[in-house]
Write a structure and sequence with these properties.
The protein is of the alpha/beta class. 36% of the residues lie in helices and 19% in strands. It has two domains: 4-62, DNA polymerase, domain 1; 67-348, Aldolase class I (TIM Barrel, Alpha-Beta Barrel), CATH 3.20.20.70. The protein has a ten-stranded mixed sheet with strand order 3-4-5-6-9-10-11-12-13-14, with helices on one face. A two-stranded parallel sheet has the order 1-2.
Length: 349
């Protein structure tokens, strides 16, 4: 009999599984506590379960802990992780410490099918979706590494992959992260970022609207966005903005507009004016992101003074705009860089 991936179950599914095993219903909460609060690595460690219960779990279920391949730490405290999955695929996660909270950036796919021109991950193509457990295990592995005294309270789905092209697994991962019997995170502290998958945004509006939505826009005309984000040909700017106007956001839970600043490509004053006009009337916050260059990148970062000019145009039009300074500049900062570096290093061996 094939064993099930127990950490890909939400609480309701875990309760049903426990019932199938013939165990008492309350055992589901005990098992969840061992998996997500105490973060054990085997069923044998669940000492308040009987030997028979632990035997049944071992026979019918399995755990897939991530293998840590490498971690790099920046002078600013940012830690970048390279993990290996059961099938040998590799993904990245990033721990970002702040003064009052800690954030984890998680991946949702091996590679990415979106093909954004400025993204290193896209150059490596797309392999597969991550399972719910592979997403959740990133949190567990990093929390274990940084220590319980530095609790990770915020999770952003902004790592490798397009979350809304792996909607069902991302949704289940969020359910596990926010269940009080599991990781017990606040929905207000979880952000899902998309390049603009319109059907996914509409599904989020109905099924996951308690978490925050971020949209990677990066351009103000379809001509430029078609080049930067090829999926724009399928979901053009007009359709994305219409989806955002349908989305149930408000000033306490604003939509984040992510905008990577690329010198001479999307950073003109006219771009800033168009962006302000596009988002007018929407409860949004614009994050202007300095480009993280990587070896062979076809773009250059916009100079700081130009970013500040762009920001001023938005503020002058009552659009909240912030410059999101990149963290971990002295390590493999760009998404996908650590995985690429390790792959090249192993090819040389």
């Amino acid at each position: 009999m094939e064993r099930v991936d127990i950490k890909s179950m939400n609480m309701q599914e875990l309760k049903e599984f426990v019932k199938e095993l013939g165990l008492e219903p309350y055992r589901a909460k005990q098992i969840a506590q061992w998996l997500y609060k105490k973060r054990v690595g085997s069923f044998d460690e669940m000492t308040n379960l009987s030997k028979e219960a632990r035997r049944l779990l071992s026979e019918r279920a399995e755990l897939h802990p991530l293998k840590l391949v490498k971690v790099e730490e920046s002078s600013d405290g940012t830690r970048k992780y390279l993990f290996e999955l059961k099938d040998g695929s590799r993904i990245e996660s990033v721990f970002i410490p702040e003064k009052s909270w800690n954030t984890l950036c998680v991946s949702t796919q091996v590679g990415c099918p979106a093909g954004c021109k400025f993204c290193l991950t896209a150059k490596d193509g797309f392999t597969r979706n991550l399972t719910p457990s592979e997403i959740v295990e990133q949190y567990i592995a990093v929390q274990r590494d940084v220590g319980e005294d530095r609790r990770i309270s915020n999770v952003v789905f902004m790592g490798m992959g397009e979350p809304l092209l792996n909607f069902d697994n991302v949704k289940k991962a969020v359910e596990i992260m926010t269940d009080k019997n599991m990781l017990d995170l606040s929905t207000r502290k979880i952000t899902i970022s998309t390049v603009g998958i319109v059907p996914g945004i509409d599904r989020m509006a109905k099924e996951m609207n308690k978490v925050k939505l971020a949209v990677s826009l990066h351009a103000t005309t379809d001509e430029v966005r078609d080049y930067l984000v090829p999926l724009n040909k399928k979901y053009p700017i007009k359709e994305i903005m219409a989806a955002l106007r349908r989305y149930p956001a408000d000033n306490t839970r604003r939509i984040m507009i992510e905008y990577v600043m690329l010198s001479g490509v999307n950073d003109s004053i006219e771009d800033a004016k168009r962006l302000a006009k596009m988002v007018k009337g929407l409860p949004v916050k614009v994050n202007l992101i300095p480009f993280n260059p990587y070896p062979g990148a076809p773009f250059k970062p916009t100079p700081r003074e130009r970013i500040e000019e762009f920001q001023k145009v938005l503020w002058d039009r009552n659009i909240a705009a912030f410059i999101r300074d990149s963290r971990g500049q002295d390590i493999s900062a760009a998404c996908g860089m650590l995985r690429t570096k390790e792959k090249e290093r192993e090819l040389v061996k």
